Amino acid sequence: MKLNSIVAAAATTAVTAWAADSSSSRVERTYSTISPMASEIASAASNATTNHFTSNVTGAAFDRIVIVWLENTDYDKAAGQEDLKWLAQQGIVLDNYWGLTHPSEPNYIASVGGDYFALDDDRFIALPSNISTIVDLFDTKEISWSEYQEHLPHTGFQGFNYSNQDNFANDYVRKHNPLVMYDSVAQNETRLANIKNFTMFEQDLNDRTLPQYSFITPNMTNDGHDTNIRIAGKWSRDFLEPLLSNEYFMENTLVVLTFDENETYSIKNKVFTILLGGAVPDELKNTTDSTYYDHYSLISSPVANWDLPSLGRHDVDANVFELVANVTNITNKDVDTTYKLNNATYVGYLLDDQIALPAPNVTAINRNGRGVLQQVVDQWGDEYSAQMSASYFTSTTTTVSASVGDAATMTLAGNSSTLATSSATQGSNSTTHPFTSTGAGAVINALSLSSLIGMLAVFI
Ligand SMILES: *[C@@H]1O[C@H](CO)[C@@H](O)[C@H](O)[C@H]1NC(C)=O
Ligand SMILES: *[C@@H]1O[C@H](CO)[C@@H](O)[C@H](O)[C@H]1NC(C)=O
Ligand SMILES: *[C@@H]1O[C@H](CO)[C@@H](O)[C@H](O)[C@H]1NC(C)=O
Ligand SMILES: *[C@@H]1O[C@H](CO)[C@@H](O)[C@H](O)[C@H]1NC(C)=O
Ligand SMILES: *[C@@H]1O[C@H](CO)[C@@H](O)[C@H](O)[C@H]1NC(C)=O
Ligand SMILES: *[C@@H]1O[C@H](CO)[C@@H](O)[C@H](O)[C@H]1NC(C)=O
Ligand SMILES: *[C@@H]1O[C@H](CO)[C@@H](O)[C@H](O)[C@H]1NC(C)=O
Ligand SMILES: *[C@@H]1O[C@H](CO)[C@@H](O)[C@H](O)[C@H]1NC(C)=O
Ligand SMILES: *[C@@H]1O[C@H](CO)[C@@H](O)[C@H](O)[C@H]1NC(C)=O
Ligand SMILES: *[C@@H]1O[C@H](CO)[C@@H](O)[C@H](O)[C@H]1NC(C)=O
Ligand SMILES: *[C@@H]1O[C@H](CO)[C@@H](O)[C@H](O)[C@H]1NC(C)=O
Ligand SMILES: CC(=O)N[C@H]1CO[C@H](CO)[C@@H](O)[C@@H]1O
Asked: Which residues form the signal peptide (predicted)?
């Protein structure tokens, strides 16, 4: 069976399950864990299409951004590794850069879509195609982009993982491939053809067809996930050192080397991050920037650099790398991290089947003074108004503004239709979840049903 038909079959099953259960408000969402046979992968590989799009849209601080993610390492351990120490001296260390939650997958998802939708595990995720990503923002100026995923068996592969075929060790995993988890990318053949592997990176480098945005994920050995920081550090230096002396690669390029999350869940989720590349001025090499950043800064920084609109999610008010902020007159905000942990998810869409997908804030203005992408406004405007009038939003269920305080959070209690005001920790079913939320999830059965139907319609 072709992958698309497998996905469709899974969606059909979900619809049946919903229909059978339609008398009750409980809706089970079905998630596939598709892993095509090796023979199917080989046959798909033989005619996968690959794009080699490039472009040269001038940015305020850089013309190209290359984002590289390593895995699961506490800040001090990474900062002390000798190859990473060497790399740090070639660039700017960001010593106040944070992961958003645990485990891995929600962090990757958030870094391109502006939310992690309350995900708290690493399961197979395919977010409905009405959710936009950074790719939609790039399209407004035809800024080229690609992902480079090591050992992705072929361009556009959508399976759950791809093991080393000799020893069946973990190699490529979907949970570290942010854009393929959004159907707005995966169900668009043009976009899918930008989801490539390292063989294609070498080719694009040699052919001078690197895109202006790339997201690079080494395999499970090289990113430290199944190994340790010594391997991940050595891989990073082996990969980056030659690039740092490659004139074509370096030209006005910003490299961001970061980690998805801290390893120890009980401590603050700060991760070691370095900015490198030709866009870093000489006088700032071997320095430290202590501005608060997090994975949402991976959206807000390119957005400010190219003066793009926003997604209306957490990208809107994320701090922008100082390199960009300084030349765009953006003032970053101070973030008090005294009580910040970023080590648990909140009660929301992917954690509780009864909670609707939050609409982005279609009225938000981002750090570079732009509104929300028109297509997002068109797609979500009505839903945003509906959720606003039902007091759906909390400080965590959506994007936007710090002005929505936890105390003002409104929750529809259980199946009753009366609005009840509740405090942040009194989410109606918070005790059924192992994680205490940092803000209450608003539970609105009617909204969640209509939005789920919309989501399934999109699948089919
Ligand atoms: C390869 O491409 C052909 C022609 O587009 C198509 O009919 C066939 O299904 C494709 N094979 C696979 C394995 O996707
Ligand atoms: C991109 O454009 C800038 C400004 O015109 C130019 O300096 C630079 O060489 C171009 N880079 C590439 C890779 O074409
Ligand atoms: C970086 O700074 C440290 C101490 O501030 C110094 O010992 C080291 O030589 C510097 N490295 C480079 C490459 O400039
Ligand atoms: C990388 O992708 C290309 C294009 O789909 C494919 O031909 C190649 O076999 C892949 N390389 C690896 C190492 O999997
Ligand atoms: C990961 O990639 C490296 C080469 O970059 C390779 O030596 C290693 O075997 C790969 N890991 C697995 C599990 O295949
Ligand atoms: C598919 O992707 C292309 C390139 O990003 C874009 O121009 C087009 O609008 C997308 N199509 C849909 C239906 O989203
Ligand atoms: C987050 O950290 C706090 C403080 O160390 C700890 O009590 C809590 O259990 C952690 N949460 C998770 C989900 O690990
Ligand atoms: C930004 O501007 C401040 C104040 O002028 C300066 O201290 C800092 O080094 C600049 N940072 C960057 C990355 O240009
Ligand atoms: C930033 O502010 C300076 C001084 O007010 C001004 O000259 C410059 O044009 C501004 N730059 C941008 C990108 O707005
Ligand atoms: C949406 O953004 C606007 C403008 O920043 C703000 O006033 C409003 O409170 C935000 N809405 C929500 C639900 O946070
Ligand atoms: C809360 O959990 C109870 C028991 O599982 C269930 O009956 C009820 O529908 C749930 N309420 C909400 C709002 O999820
Ligand atoms: C904020 C922060 O750095 N959190 C922790 C990450 O892990 C190291 C342990 O290696 C701790 O020292 C940090 O406090």
From this structure: 1-19
